[in-house]
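Entry under discussion copied across for reference:
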Amino acid sequence: MISLDDFQILSFNKKCDFITVFADYLLYRVEEEKKYYLYSMKDYFVEVCYLPSEGRVLGINAFHTVEELEDYYDFIDITDLSL
């Protein structure tokens, strides 16, 4: 697995390839006409912004802080966890 810094300097196409092969899909959310897909890359997260009406990816954002997951809080269900 590559580091967050190394991932961020990849070209757009290489990021897409890397996500397809190595990332674990977690969930998605919808905001306006866009879909945001969240992936885990072991030590960091990757968010892919997709515009279904045009069938294209608008952007890829990689991050490692929990605060940047705030937009996903309403979509995370922890009821099945044994705490």
